[in-house]
Amino acid sequence: MEAGKYLTFTLAGEEYGVPVLRVREIIKMMDITEVPQVPPHVKGVLNLRGKVIPVVDLRLKFGFTKVDITSRTCIIVVEVALAASRVMMGVIVDHVSEVLNIVADEIAPTPEFGDRVCTDHIKGMAKVKGTVKILLDLDRVLGTDDAALSAA
Amino acid sequence: MQSLIQEDPALANHVDQRLAGNLGQLKRITAGLQRSAMALRMVPIRQAFQKVSRIVRDLSRKADKSVELVLSGEDTELDRKVVEEITDPLMHMVRNSIDHAIEPAAARRAAGKRPQARIALSAYHQGGHIVIEIADDGKGLDTQKIKARAIERGLIAPGASPSADEINALIFEPGFSTAEKVTEISGRGVGMDVVRRNIDALRGRVEIATEQGKGTTFSIRLPLTLAVLDGLIVGVGRERFVMPTTGVRESLRPLPAHVHNVQGSPRVVQVRDSLLPLISLGELFGLPHEGDPCKATVVVIEDAGSQVGLIVDTLLGKQEVVIKSLGETFASVRGIAGGAILGDGRIGLILDAHGIVELERGVNRAAA
Fold it and tell me: Does one domain contain both B62 and B23?
């Protein structure tokens, strides 16, 4: 399990972490253009200083209920490896917390939840200062299956 | 340039003449800058055609065939990158035409043709695509021979009965050649597959129309992905779309008497003497939209020679936009050719007439 700096954010009351090296920038909620024929969690595309990047609502992706956009709602722009290329993608989260230095000792492997729960997209759980942060595997969360899902 | 336009709404709140004046000045400068930047990107296809004409001259001498090259549409502007990428395939295809398709003068005379062969190279815009045509008046593709060779090589099963188009498309297979002998110019069967690969890389298509004894026409259709596009901005719900003006014939607000319902929803509109099928963009993309075409606007678009009426809520204007790819994530979205950043910084999706028509047909089929 990789130790290092993680950017943590909140989603439906839980703390999540993504490797900070994969984060390009954090922007406030912007006007998103919807794209037809895509699953609901793919919110559309936005204009990041002239670049067109897809945006995924992580709440919907993980099956949480939709909430209204608040002043703390953020889009984290991350780099994701897709089948053929590395692309920038925006991820909508409830709010961004902090950058944490997580050492290897603090990371525990993902526990087995049985067959009913798919944990492929979770890299591990970090116990920091008494709370648990769920460390996400970005390529799994946003990568291949998203590209495939857009066909559905 | 964009940030300036983004500032524009703020301008409305602050009425200050000097500020307005200076901003106007800046706008003019950036507009000029944009124009020159665009102009740098876009080059006429002439330079690719010129290389071809040299090849024709050289080869006709070498192969002892008299060939007249007719060029048209040399001024069609293409993205510099497209022109660079398309030059080699073009040269290769012309080389093939001269070597394989065009008969020696004696054979031409015997076939009752002009001894001097003719290759026409033309470029034009069509329905949001750029089409480059290479037409020769040679002997045409020998479909039977290609089929025989394909069976020999196991590309098609002996019992299968592929259509002539399918057979002709086999000439793009790697290593495929029906030439009996390898000449100095060509005949190794390497090349047409490279041509196709190059065109695929530009996300284009090649079509072959051939008539035995009369000649062959290769049509290369290139999408506008790399090009700058003149677009008609249309609104549906709160989304805006860009329709390439090359694919737009006209736009109109039909009279109730001219809209005919089929199975309860408006499906056909009468435009002067012709009846056009109607497609509601809002319905197709699942957006809130104006249901009554008489209150909305119908944009008549053209796809592959046929016209359809696209129902949109409003026409918002015309703008020159730079096409941005939506990327892999949206590769399977049909009816959308890309995105463009509009004046206020939001993204408008670029419509693909061909995709929309196909999508609508698919929707109808699914509903039936």
Answer: no
| CB–CB contact B326 A146 (8 Å) | no
| Stated length of chain B | 368
- Rg over alpha carbons for chain A, rounded to the nearest Å, is 15
Instruction: Give me the mean pLDDT over the A56-82 stretch.
Output: 86
- Cβ distance B328 to A83 less than 8 Å, yes or no, reads yes
**pLDDT mean over A37-48:** 85
| Last residue of one domain, picked from the residues B177, B202, B221 | B221
Residues B185 and B254 in one domain: no
What pTM did the predictor assign? 0.59
CB–CB of B330 and A35 under 8 A?
A: yes
Provide the ipTM: 0.73
One domain, residues B294 and B357: yes
User: Nearest chain B Cα to A86, which residue?
Assistant: B328
* Nearest chain A residue to B328, by CA: A147
C-alpha–C-alpha distance, residues B331 and B18, integer Å: 47
Which chain A residues have a beta carbon less than 8 Å from that of B239? 33-34
Instruction: Give, in degrees to the nearest 5, the angle at Cα B189 between B183 and B190.
Output: 105
Distance CA B73, CA A126 (A): 64
Q: Is residue B198 located within the same domain as residue B126? A: yes
Is the domain of B61 the same as that of B206? yes
